Amino acid sequence: MTWGKTSLRWLFPGMRVKRFAALSALGLVLLLVGVGVWFSGRGVAPIHDLARLFEGYGVSPAVAGGVILVIGLLLLIGGIRAMNRSVLSAITDPDRVAELVYQRRRLEAGPKIVALGGGTGLSRVLSGLKHHTAHTTAVVAATDDGGSTGRLRVDFGLPAVGDLVDCMAALAEAERMPELMQYRFQKGSGLKGHTFGNLFLVALYELTGDFAEAARQANRMLNLLGSVWPSTPDAATLVADLSGGREVWGECALRASQGRVERVRLDPAEVSVMPEVAEAIRSADLVVLGPGSLYTSVIASFLPPAVQAAIRESPVPLVYVANIMTEPGETDGYDAFDHVAAVERHLGRRPDVVLVHTEPIPEPVRARYAEEGRFPVAFDPDPFRAKGVRVITGDFREAGPLAQHDPEKVVGALVGLLK
Questions:
Q1: Do residues 273 and 232 make contact, with C-beta atoms less than 8 angstroms apart?
Q2: Which class would CATH give 104-418?
Q3: Strands lying side by side in the sheet with 390-394
């Protein structure tokens, strides 16, 4: 019954389909008539009479039938094409359909990659992955408590939304959607400092009353080339245990602290995990950690026990993308292997492959970062060799004034592992 009602809608006025459907029907009739005339209408009296009529004018049934068949075929194809263009014009540019379908089919044949982390590093890798596969799953740390996100956490009691929004923007396919999601209001009482994407996700949370469902609806509405999920839909705080027995609560406090981080954890420790996260990890072809802040992005993304268990049990390669520069309050004095050791200490599994930037960083860039207390992450191959960890070295930095990863270079190395 529902199918019948839906079909009848094509006959409604203004659909701009009926005329083309009639043209196609006429073409089909002529095509069948042409075939019948070609064979002199054997077994079909009206067609046989028509064939005899053509013969009376000195035209053989084969020639007459062939002409009618070609005319019918042209009308059939023309009608179908015009009908398709009429329907597609209500949705997208018909001239781009073939290109869009090809791109989508190519991406749907791509590998299943799960990337965990947060912040700018993860979103940049996602922006590169969406050109290679439609099966990217981002698992994003949801413990940030600074800026717009921090204010919204206090007001609404929900997990951090900022990094989630950045990753959704990175995987968005619609034109200008990334720009819209990351637009930050510059004025307005209560609005200034907030991004549109943050408010969008909070609005969905208010409408659904469930952060997990809000994330699901956001994924559907934005038509992402992949999916983006919080590592936990529960509001949790990142707690750091520092050397000397000190305890620091919150990401902002951790970044401002002085002292070596011994361990980070969530409060509460037992948090829920969306089933989509565990399923994505179980079915992945590759699991990637980072790049991003070691403790507040990368490790924070897999602290929920169910996420850790899924990664430990996964048989596929685990790749860690090491930071290019150290971060004050988190990784002061860390070399590349210190990063890997911290990941293993918290995860219970050592990365199988590590990507390390080893090319020299231009002096102006180094000087700029040195003013912030940030220095290139040193690399010594010996401890990696001793632990049997494969290291891929090279130039992973994006050209320009910043020491940040180039999405295409990193993604090229990741896709190369699968080949």
A1: yes
A2: alpha beta
A3: 227-230, 136-140, 113-117, 286-289, 318-321, 353-357, 390-394
Residue 220 DSSP SS3: helix
> Which residue reads 């991004």 in tokens?
195
Q: How far apart are the first and last CA of the chain?
A: 49
Contact 314, 284 (CB under 8 A): yes
Predicted TM-score of the model (pTM): 0.79
How confident is the model over 330-385, as pLDDT tens digits? 999 999 999 999 999 999 999 999 999 999 999 999 999 999 999 999 999 999 99
Q: Whole-angstrom Cα distance, residue 319 to residue 407?
A: 15
Q: Are 73 and 31 in contact (CB under 8 A)?
A: yes
Output the pLDDT for position 95: 58
Cα angle: 160, vertex 165, 171; to 5 degrees: 140
Residue linked to tokens 């009296």: 45
What average pLDDT does the segment 239-249 reach? 93
- Distance between CA 277 and CA 305 in Å, rounded? 12
Residue 268: cis peptide before it, omega within 30 degrees of 0: yes
Question: What are the residue boundaries of the structural domains of the chain, listed by start?
Answer: 2-91, 104-418
Q: What angle do CA 280, 384, 290 make, to 5 degrees?
A: 35
Three-class secondary structure of residue 138 per DSSP: strand
Query: Contact at 8 Å (CB) between 19 and 13?
Result: no
What residue has token string 């053989």?
A: 60
What three-state secondary structure class fits 190? coil
Please report, for residues 75, 173, 342, the alpha-carbon distance to residue 330 in angstroms, rounded to integers and kept in the order given.
70, 34, 11
Where are the strands (E) in 59-217, listed by range?
113-117, 136-140
The sheet carrying 261-267 orders its strands as 247-249, 237-242, 261-267
Closest CA to 75 of 13, 44, 32: 32
Which pairs with CB-CB distance under 8 Å and at least 24 residues apart come from 239-243?
239/264, 239/265, 239/266, 239/267, 240/264, 240/295, 241/265
Do you find a cis peptide bond into 291, omega within 30 degrees of 0? Answer: yes
User: Around 259, how many Cα atoms within 13 Å sit in the side-chain half-sphere?
Assistant: 15
The DSSP bridge partners found for residue 136 are 113
Which among 328, 396, 415 has a CA at the least distance from the CA of 124? 396
| Each residue's pLDDT tens digit, 114-139 | 999 998 999 999 999 999 999 999 99
What residue type is 144 in one-letter code? D
Residue 122 near residue 164, CB atoms below 8 Å: no
